Amino acid sequence: MDFMAEMAELAMASRLRRLSDMYWQAVTATYRQSGLDFDVRWATIFVLIARQGPVAVMEIADRLGITHPAVIQVINELEKNGLITSTKSETDGRKRLLTLSDTGQAMLPKLQPLWDAFIAVNKSMLAQQTHHLLQSLQEMEAQLSEKNFFDRVQEELKKTNTTNL
User: Fold this and answer.
1) Pure H helices in 34-148
2) pLDDT digit string (tens) for 101-117?
3) Which structural domain, as residue segments, surrounds residue 71?
4) Contacts of 38 (CB under 8 A, 6+ apart)
5) Are 66 and 109 part of one and the same domain?
6) Measured between alpha carbons, how far is 88 from 51 in angstroms, rounded to an integer?
7) What is the separation, in whole angstroms, between the first and last Cα of the chain?
8) 40-69, pLDDT tens digit by residue?
9) I want to staple 11 with a disulfide (CB 3.0 to 4.6 A). Which of 7, 77, 127, 149 is the partner?
């Protein structure tokens, strides 16, 4: 058994990161093997823009539950690679509305078969699990949206300090 698995709850964030890294490496290798210059970090925002467009930066951040700076970083990369375009909103000049560029639209049919394969493999792996990982993640995310991990740890530390006095 590996050491992180032995550490159980203590290494939960590290194990999630390790699992994420395994996926990112495999997905990146798949994109490269397919001859596509596409970064795994772009996928969720790219798909959201493809399905929603035109969409504002803040809406992307809200829909994905990620920070505005993280969205800006990815959209800057997508723009630099010619996959999206941005225009100012006609109703609010401060808003940037994002859509797929012609290059981004042309890349969609090349990406879709890969994404379909990712979905099929994930469904197959999830079907073999005793506890459905996606449902478990959703439950953890819901709990953390009610009260974040830091606040929970602080409460636990107060209980421990009170008990130890």
Assistant:
1) 43-52, 57-64, 68-80, 102-127, 133-146
2) 999 999 999 999 999 99
3) 41-128
4) 31, 46, 107, 111
5) yes
6) 19
7) 38
8) 999 999 999 999 989 999 999 999 999 999
9) 7
